Amino acid sequence: MKSKFLIVNVVTILTFWRGHPCPAQSQISFTINATPIADGLGYVTGQNYNFVYTLNTDPTTGNGPFQPGTATAGANYQWIQEWVMDPQIWTSVAGDGLAGTWTQPSAGGTQSADPYSYLTASSSSPSLSLLGGADLSDVGLTAAGIPVKWIWFAADFTGLNFAAITGTLPNPNAYLAGYAGSYAANNSITGWIHGVSGDAVFTVNSLALTVTDAPEPSTVAMSAIGFSALLVFRRQKKPRSIKSVRQ
């Protein structure tokens, strides 16, 4: 009886869930293609390299939602993270020539020891600027074995024209979801990978702004509930004994 009751409830929950799906969030990533203008940190002049920034899909990570203040038309629209308690801008920063895993800087106490990352969308030059880094600590990545502190790329991109914002800046996921596409740089501003000793300087060639659907946390949680309940049911359903089979 208990097993039947459990099945009915699981089916009811999953049926309701299918009829009332949770909306997907936008998973936004920026892929920068760039060429070094000089050898450094293992990067070779004349070769092309790709670097990917993945935007945080959960704006509550950190100390509440993105709250960068207000913006006026024609201004730089900047989402910035300067303190450990600030919402995390990037969940991942990776790229060719980089080893390790992007790690959110955790040193606190003073601003000089905190993270320093931002995303800037602008109607002026540069139209897009991406920075992932820390003031003093490294970010879990190395280039040619040297710990990396900052990874920054900025440029103007043909056809990438951001809509004016007035009032409070929106969540960047919602704002940028409509700008998916590939863009050629038309006025590259130097990109820079800054190590604890040594740097690599780049010219930006292009940008690919990718938008994919990421499941809501509640969707993942509902899937886990359904799976767990079915697993409990399987454990409760005992196999018949050999004796009962023979009878």
Report on the structure:
There is one protein chain. Strand 7 and strand 8 form a beta hairpin. The chain has helices spanning 2-19, 172-176, 217-236, 242-246, and strands at 25-36, 49-55, 70-71, 76-81, 90-95, 98-100, 117-122, 128-133, 141-143, 146-157, 167-168, 181-195, 199-214. The chain is α+β, with helices and mostly antiparallel strands and 247 residues long. Helix 1 runs antiparallel to helix 3. Helix content is 19%, strand content 39%. Strands 1, 2, 4, 5, 6, 7, 8, 9, 10, 12 and 13 form an eleven-stranded antiparallel β-sheet that branches. It has a two-stranded antiparallel sheet with strand order 3-11. The chain has two domains: 1-24 and 219-247; 25-214, no CATH class. It is globular. The chain is built from four helices and 13 strands.
Structural class: alpha+beta
| Overall spatial form | globular
- Roughly how many Å is the radius of gyration? 24 Å
Instruction: State the helical fraction.
Output: 10-25%
How much of the polypeptide forms β-strand, as a percent range? 35-45%
| Distance N to C terminus | 24 Å
Question: How much is the average pLDDT?
Answer: 75
Unreliable residue stretches: 2-23, 217-235, 237-247
The helix/strand order is: HEEEEEEEEEEEHEEHH
The total count of helices amounts to 4
Largest beta-sheet details? 11 strands, antiparallel
